[in-house]
Amino acid sequence: MIEKDDKKLKYGWTTGACATAATKAAFEALITGAFSKSVTITLPKGQTPTFAVTNPKLSSESASAGIVKDAGDDPDVTHGATIVSAVSWGDPSSASKNSDLNTITFKAGPGVGMVTKPGLPIPPGEPAINPVPRELMKKVIEELAKEHGVSSNVIIEISVPNGEKIAKSTWNGRLGIVGGLSILGTTGIVVPYSCSAWIHSIHRGIDVARATNTDHIGAAVGNMSEKLILKTHPLTETDLIDMGDFVGGMLKYLKKNPVPKVTIAGGFAKMSKLAMGEMDLHSKRSEVDKAWLGSLLASLGAAEELVEKAKLANTALEILNLAQDSNLEIGTLVAEKAKKCVDEKLAGTDVEFAVDIEILICDRAGQLVGRAANKDF
User: Fold this and answer.
1) What is the rounded CA–CA span in Å between residue 351 and residue 210?
2) Does residue 105 sit in the same domain as residue 144?
3) With the C-alpha atoms ordered 342, 343, 348, 354, is the resulting torsion angle positive or negative?
4) pLDDT, tens only, 16-35
5) Sign of the Cα pseudo-torsion (72, 73, 76, 79, in order)
6) Going by DSSP bridges, is the β-strand pair 111-112/180-181 parallel, antiparallel, or unpaired?
7) Which residues constitute the domain of residue 320?
8) Overall pTM surpassing 0.90 (yes/no)
9) 16 lies in the same domain as 164
10) 333 touches 271 (CB < 8 A)
């Protein structure tokens, strides 16, 4: 359990941990001819979780088992999905206990994607099964093979029923992972509301952009700001990163892994928080400072009465409307201050080139209300 916001939340398990447990259960059954009701694995940091085994299937040449993923109290789209591992001998001749062949091959079954673009931890043409889960699965295969005196020359096929449909709620398509989900995890543990999978996807999106020599990407807070980027620049959806509220996590990674040009877009309220230096734009972790926005109106020549109205406004949108009614370009000013904060965050790093930043701000209708960029952007 972990305590957040005075609530006790339960940790969960990654798809990689579940795939490892399923692989152990399947290979053990392939060797012994019987399934255990549960299996215990060792995670990279030494934890030893136990998983209930489901969907056992056994033949002379292969065995498969499933693990239902429990993401704990994290709002993970793969929570409740069944991660299935089918283990078979790599070659009929290698099924012998005396075989010297010890090659472990990974395959993508239904619901698990294939990598098609460079820049990811796994090269194009390979199943989207990340390095740490691969190592965990190799380890359980090798340990069981040694314990029972059999070959570790096996094929591991990971599948996720309904995985292709679930993957539509992830970034896999934009990252060039087609056909289903990725099998992820570096620690094996899902920390509730850490949003590690989201931040991981931001990083991988930047990696893919760099590997494909993409010189301009867009980072959007939400759907409306994505549309604004596409309307403003000749980019495609594959050039976009769903940044969400995690501008800080994106900038930290960009600082060491730069892309020549980045357009950051969001609504007026969230960009106002960025303009004040907030790097997490979620409503629970940062707030719009209406008094600060009022001071911006004053700097634009607003009457004292308007400034006071802004300070007492219910929402940032109300302040934007007040400014527009008085022909005051508060959106542009907020964009300029947001760009300054981002530029400062990216400064002072030893990289091959600087990141050229553009800020776009939209209203609730998706219309541009503020922009800041260098002249040659």
Assistant:
1) 13
2) yes
3) positive
4) 999 999 999 999 999 999 99
5) positive
6) parallel
7) 214-373
8) no
9) yes
10) no
